[in-house]
Each structure stands twice: as structure tokens, then as C-alpha cells.
Design goal:
The chain is mainly beta. It is built from one helix and 16 strands. The strands form three sheets. Strands 1-2-3-4-5-6-7-8 form an eight-stranded antiparallel β-barrel. The protein has a four-stranded antiparallel beta sheet with strand order 9-16-14-11, with no helix packed on it. It has a four-stranded antiparallel beta sheet with strand order 13-12-10-15, with no helix packed on it. It is globular.
């Protein structure tokens, strides 16, 4: 039974892992670790094909480096999905939602001002991390109540960026 989700580049996948088998949206991948290199790089055999992939894990985030491309992956279990849904349902009133930095980086652009009306999914600011721009979006319709950063400021993972009410 697939009970977890991974989210990457705004795409969501169901996943499960059983021994050396990874299921993504019910598609099966046989994965075998052939060799471990320094700096968390691995040579893997995936369905008979050799690949080299870098992995860095922190909390519920994994950063994959494959073919000179960095891919941020968020891991979400059923408990987190349920908690997020309950928060969303409870937040249908005038509750404040705080948005934190998903990774360390540099604030390179801010698109909104405090007390601006924002729509769910609208880009509020952009963080540059590892030479990639990451749009940080409003989690809901509302008013941008606080903005705790400015352009040119470095932030750490989980620093509070802004709140929407």
C-alpha cells in the first residue's frame, strides 16, 4: 500500500519502498547500490541501468544531483498530509499562515508589499540557492501581513519569510 508522497518541481508522486524496490505512482523500479563515492554520491543500478546520483538529506528534504542538475525533493508522509489538510480546513477563516524558507539562500526579488492582497500560488519572493531561482508562493488567498526579509538578505532553512492572513 502506497502511503507516502514526494513532491518535486510542483509534481507530486505516491511512493513506497520495499527492500530494493521503489514504487513511484505504482511503477516499480529495482534499485541496487553498486558503489558509494565521497560526498554522498552513489553508483546505482536502476532496472538494469547504471546511474550516478548525489544525495543530500535534511529533515523531509532530499537534494538529488543527477546529470549536473540539482533536483529538490520534499518527502511527505500520511501524518504530514493529514496535518496539512486539517490546517487548511481550519485556516478557511482569518488564521495567519507563516511561510518559512525551504532552504538556505539569498533573497533576490520581492514581488509584493505588506498589506497587499495575494492569491494562492502567487509568487511572493524569489530565493537563489545553488545558482537556482526558487519561487516562494503564497499558500492561500489573503493579505500579506508580514514580510520579514528584504532583497539581498541571506536566509537559513526555516527562517520565517512572510505571513498571509
Amino acid at each position: 500500500m502506497i502511503i507516502n508522497k514526494v513532491i518535486t518541481e510542483n509534481t507530486e508522486f505516491d511512493y513506497d519502498i520495499k527492500e530494493n524496490i521503489v514504487f513511484l505512482n505504482n511503477e516499480q523500479f529495482n534499485v541496487e547500490i553498486l558503489k558509494r563515492f565521497a560526498n554522498d554520491y552513489y553508483e546505482l543500478l536502476i532496472n538494469g541501468k547504471k546511474v550516478i546520483v548525489g544525495f543530500k538529506k535534511s529533515d523531509n528534504q532530499i537534494q538529488l544531483n543527477y546529470n549536473n542538475r540539482v533536483i529538490e525533493v520534499e518527502i511527505v508522509d500520511n501524518f504530514t498530509l493529514l496535518k496539512n489538510e486539517m490546517t487548511r480546513m481550519a485556516g478557511s477563516g482569518q488564521s495567519k499562515t507563516i511561510v518559512k524558507a525551504p532552504m538556505p539562500g539569498l533573497i533576490i526579488k520581492i514581488n509584493k508589499e505588506v498589506n497587499s492582497i495575494v492569491k494562492k500560488g502567487e509568487t511572493i519572493l524569489i530565493i537563489e540557492a545553488m545558482k537556482m531561482e526558487n519561487a516562494i508562493k503564497s499558500p492561500k488567498d489573503g493579505v500579506l501581513r508580514t514580510l520579514n526579509v528584504s532583497t539581498g538578505i541571506s536566509v537559513a532553512k526555516n527562517d520565517v519569510l512572510f505571513s498571509v492572513e
